[in-house]
Amino acid sequence: MTVEPPRLLDPDVPGDVASYRDLRLFALTEAPEAFASSYERESAEPLDFFRDRLSQEHGRFVLGSFAAASLVGVVGMFRSPGLKVRHRGHIWGMYVHPDWRQAGVGRRLLTDAIARARAVDGLELLDLGVGSENTPAIRLYRALGFEGTGTDPRGLKVGDRYIDEYRMWLPFD
Length: 173
Known about the structure:
The chain is α+β, with helices and mostly antiparallel strands. The chain has helices at residues 14-30, 39-42, 47-53, 105-118, 135-143, and strands spanning 7-8, 61-67, 70-79, 88-96, 125-131, 147-158, 161-171. The protein has a seven-stranded mixed β-sheet, sandwiched between helices. The termini are far apart.
C-alpha cells in the first residue's frame, strides 16, 4: 500500500475532520507521553473542536498523509499571535500511526510542513517540543535541520511519570 503525498486537512470536508479526530484520539491513547493534551480531555470534545484545529487562518495548518483512504500521519503548524512573537511558528501534534512508522511518512509530513511554513509571510523560525526520550523523533527533527535549545525538566506528567521536554528550533536564515 502506498502513502499519498501530504495534503492540507480541510475543516470544511467532514471526512477530513472525522479522520483527524479518530487518529488524534488513537494517538493520545497509543502515545500519551507525546502530547500535552489527553484522551480524557479530547474525547469529550464535540466534532467542532477538531474542525477548529484544522483552521487555516493566520498561517496555521494541519497536514495529513493518507493510505487507502485512512489518515496515517499528521503534523500541525501555528504562528504565535502576538506582535512581538509573530515571527515564530510552532510545530505541534506530529504523529504517525505505528503501522506506518519507518516508512518515510513523518519525514514527508515534516518536510512539507517546513516548506509551507517558510512561505508564510514574516515567519522566521519554527520551534517544537519533543519528549527527551523520543529518540526517533529527535533524530528526524535533527536530520531536517532542527537544533536543540534546551530541556524543560518535568515538562509533562503522565500518571506518576515525568517527561522532560526537549526544545528545538529551525531558523529560516
